[in-house]
Write a structure and sequence with these properties.
six-stranded mixed sheet; 11 helices; 13 strands; Penicillin-binding protein 1b fold; Rossmann fold; single chain; disordered N terminus; alpha/beta
């Protein structure tokens, strides 16, 4: 029998990743690296899409740098992510999307967009190798949770840990998780007897926590569609499910009062919106002001200077 002529499938990152080593032979690329090492600003003019993606990918793969690319719009950001993914692989190119709701719009942002934003921040904080983060300008300007709060307010669960249901339910509420009958979306949890299902913001799949009394017996991932348990988990990182926290609400109220926001007009021009304490996190999210001094994508120390790329799309 003649041997099969079916070609072996190889990922695009495997085909293209080895070519990045050739960047060191380019005089222009060495000049780019030298300028960045000296923390100098520079302008990359008239760069083609392929050349730009090659240079940024080489800085990540061989320059040992985390690279943040700020695109003028969401469509351009997704296109850049696809271009870099061909060189680095999708696991090393993180998309930080927009929240999809307009500023001051009285509607909750997309749950999937919030989950992707939090997942990108978590992967950036825990990455073992340099990565590229692609975001639109609007996505960077939108408020998100500080990196310290993201790690401090979270918790790692392992088999054998003690897990009191009453304390856990209160803790999950504080993190922005919503109780549901069946967990299928990020930021939700449910309980059935001694089984607690959680879909953490830092995970791609939900997890099933099986309890024996107040002790965690097993941790397993499960399929959100079939609800069937899958592989065992060594640990489960449960992070905040929302990009804001009410922990410092009292301090914020005092700051607003000091700034002259404490006395409302006697006859407001429109009915005031009141959100009771029992409202869902989505309702609070829709009316939360974007009060922040820095952005996690730009808050970490970086080794490079500013790059202004005037390039063709």
């Amino acid at each position: 029998m003649a041997p099969s002529s079916t070609p072996t499938l190889v990922s695009s990152s495997a085909r293209l990743g080895g070519i990045l080593a050739l960047a060191e032979r380019s005089e222009r690329y060495r000049e780019l690296e030298g300028r960045l090492e000296a923390r100098e600003s520079l302008v990359v003019a008239e760069a083609t899409a392929g050349g730009r993606a090659f240079a940024w990918s080489a800085l990540v793969a061989h320059g040992g740098r985390n690279v943040a690319l700020i695109a003028p719009g969401e469509d351009r950001a997704r296109r850049w992510r696809a271009e870099l993914g061909g060189w680095l692989g999708d696991d090393r190119v993180l998309l930080f999307p927009e929240r999809e709701s307009m500023p001051f719009e009285a509607s909750a942002p997309s749950a999937s967009a919030v989950h992707q934003r939090l997942l990108t921040l978590w992967r950036l904080a825990t990455a073992q190798a340099p990565v590229a983060v692609v975001a639109s300008l609007r996505a960077v300007l939108e408020h998100t949770i500080p990196p310290d709060d993201l790690a401090r307010r979270g918790r790692t669960l392992r088999a054998g840990d003690t897990l009191s249901w009453q304390e856990t339910a209160t803790w999950l509420f504080d993190l922005g998780y919503e109780p549901v009958t069946e967990v299928s979306e990020p930021g939700t949890f449910s309980r059935r007897g001694g089984i607690v299902d959680i879909y953490p913001a830092s995970a791609e799949q939900p997890a099933r926590v099986e309890l024996f009394g107040d002790e965690i017996e097993t941790l397993r991932a499960f399929d959100p569609i079939t609800q069937r348990s899958q592989a065992d988990l060594a640990q489960l990182d449960v992070l905040p499910a929302r990009e804001f926290s009410l922990q410092h609400a009292a301090e914020l109220a005092e700051r607003l009062a000091t700034a002259g926001w404490g006395a409302p007009p006697p006859k407001p021009p429109m009915p005031l919106l009141h959100i009771p304490s029992s409202s869902t996190s989505s309702a609070k999210e829709a009316t939360r002001p974007a009060l922040t001094r820095s952005h996690p994508l730009l808050a970490r120390p970086v080794r490079c200077s500013t790059i202004s790329a005037t390039a063709r799309a």
